[in-house]
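User: Please predict the structure of the protein below. I'd like the answer in structure-token form so I can feed it into my own downstream comparison script.

Assistant: Understood. Taking the following sequence of 491 residues as input:
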Amino acid sequence: MNSRVIPSNQDLQPVPMAELPSADSRQPAVGWSDLLHGANGVRSLALAGGVALHAVNVYIATTILPSVIRDIGGLDLYAWNTTVFVVASILGAALSAKLLRRAGPRGAYAIAAAVFALGSLVCALSPSMPVMLAGRLVQGLGGGFLFALAYAMIRLVFSEALWPRAMALVSGMWGIATLVGPAVGGIFAELGIWRAAFWSLALVALAFAALATAVLPKGKAHAGQGSAVPLTQLILLVAAVLVISAGSASSDLAWNIGGVVLAVAFTLLLVAVENRAKLRLLSTGAFQPSSLIAALYATMALLAITVTSGEIFVPLFLQVLHGQSPLAAGYLAAIMAAGWTAGSIAGSGAGDRGARRLIVAGPLLEIAGMVALFFLVPGTSAGTWGELAPMCVAFLAVGLGVGLTWPHLMTRAFKAARPGEEELAGASVTTVQLFATAMGAALAGMVANAGGLVDPGGLTGTEGAARWLFGAFAIVPLLCVISARRVVRIS
């Protein structure tokens, strides 16, 4: 295995001071105006816009995929559109630190946007589903780059006082994408021009590449350093995602269990390799139970798993059990994402004492929301607003639980990084989030199938799936409370 070359302190200044924002990092009181005006405002647009592009694409692709299948076929590969995209996003996130080191902030972001545009063009021109999957692979790689680079470059282009608000802005793009993506995708699907959706994504990506070139600092490229990547760990991580995704796609319980067992085996092997490796995938201490970084990663992963498990099946449950149209169900489910966005913005300005309280309060809100959904979603109703309103409050609680906590967890993860691992810390946050999202989706599918979604199916099976899903995943934020309390205790 190749040894990692740790950069010197001088090398850890990829952005010259002359190119940093003029805001005084010693200024104790900063607000949203400091982030959203002048040079900071344009840079915020570039970073947040890249994440928005990645996130909107997720929901557009989900919305137009049935139209794609009707046109070019490939129903048997339907689920792999998501699997390939998420796996490629994980790879992009993991490799983003290397890209940033070698190309500098400006070059790295422009390259990421160009890769995303190329993948979108391949999707737009796809004559068959295998070609579409190749495009989704390239798209996911570029999206993973954009997603991770946005977080990593917050440290490089903003003063430390602006970090929480910048992180809230970037993470809040997912909430906006959840509201915008289904509508945009739905318009293209209704007009019968699904290829135009990918064409438009390519054009927007190229526009962001041009914006990045114009407004982001050039920084320093370190072409001779960081050339190696943690290939073994990446292979094991991808293998864990793929086997559990394959297992969750089957209604056969034995296949489900086999996927979980293999995923656990690959994950344990990943831990063993990472603990001994000089070339790392995650920040040092990620798998050491006594470390702060391990507690931070655990809390973030558990929060993401909880919200993912709810988001995936809520639209289906609302349509089958509560008589909602696909559009209405999609936007009701988006309340979770809206809660994430609102929580991120509302809680980002909290001081240290307030942040500590929010880190513990977040998982408690998720518990309350999931328990409420356990009682409210199973069963049938006429879907009146009087019946839906309590569910909406529960959806909001689950989203707020993540949003109030997330910016402060990320800030602590950045500060906890060892010297020489600053860029890796940004990429690691994204890797953990994507890995947790993929695992949460696969496990949610497994639990729903076990609860009867496919067999016996129908109203009875859907009710059982809802009961099992919200009951089982209410346990996850309980575990999150434990890790969150540890974060507060040792940070």
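That's the full token string. Residues 1-27, 223-227 have pLDDT under 50 and may be disordered.
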